[in-house]
Amino acid sequence: MRDFLQRLPKAELHLHIEGSLEPELMFALAERNGIDLPYASVEAVRAAYEFDDLPAFLELYYQGMSVLRTAEDFHDLAMDYFRRAHDEGVVHVEMHFDPQAHLVRGIELDVVMEGLNLAQRHAERELGMSTALIMAFLRDRSAEEAMKVLESAAPYWEMIDAVGLDSAERGHPPSKFVEVFQRARMLGIPRVAHAGEEGPPEYIREALDLLDVCRIDHGVRCLEDPDLVTRLRDEAVVLTVCPLSNVKLKVVERMADHPLPQLLDAGLRLTINSDDPAYFGGGVLDNYLACYQAFDWSRETFVQLAGTAIEAAFMSDARRLDLH
Ligand code: HPA
Ligand code: ZN
Predict the structure, then answer these.
(1) Residue 130: which domain range?
(2) Which of 16, 40, 184, 289 has the fewest CB atoms below 10 angstroms from its CB?
(3) What is the pLDDT of residues 267-287, one digit of tens each?
């Protein structure tokens, strides 16, 4: 089954590129940039990756990315991930990135965009992969700041495949960002949002009704609201589910408790993704394998999940035809 899942052409729709920073690269970039890390070794970094919830993870995630300073750093970060994903049989990667997490450290948007965009072109040329860019707003910061970031990204609007909404969910409902997402819509930029990871089903409804998103990132808590599940099924909304992330952040206790089988039984359109692979114990293939081990799914089920990801991806019709 491992060989089959490795060879299956997989698209990844839910990845935070800053969360793909492996401890080895963290140390290499710290050295290159003359930064002292609060860890003695790569092993010490990995040992620190035990989280009680999303906010506990986010603290280490924002701290880890402090080694990213130059366009070359962002390029190396993304290429490092694209190579690993390519080895796992991933043919298309959509990466969220968090401009505000860099702006607050004095790293300009131009630096981030230059590095990530160069990596996108390299991935296409060297690895034959397609990629997409999702500019995410930090929901635990103000909507005014998010709007400023969107406006200041004007030179890059053409290069941004979607805007997203991430960071600490509880207490920061999608409704807070209505104007920002309306503006993105006016600009013709597609929209996605994290909802129903730690937050209630109501946040999923808000993301659909108020932000007009085309996909929900996570969304697993929809099961607490049967009417919402019916709606998600009827409207064929795609959920980007991240099973190993949900275990690591204690959204569920163990893989065996993960609601993926119920979500599938409910007829929802699902995809399997890594979220923050360096922090949560593996990439896309590891997430597929964890599902196989926990649920003993058939090849057909995995073909269906991988197919849904390609259908729901931000990619050209020509590329989609190529992959189907
Ligand atoms: N959830 C919400 N925000 C995030 C995550 C996540 O798993 N990773 C990076 N930002
Ligand atoms: Zn995420």
Answers:
(1) 2-318
(2) 40
(3) 999 999 999 999 999 999 999
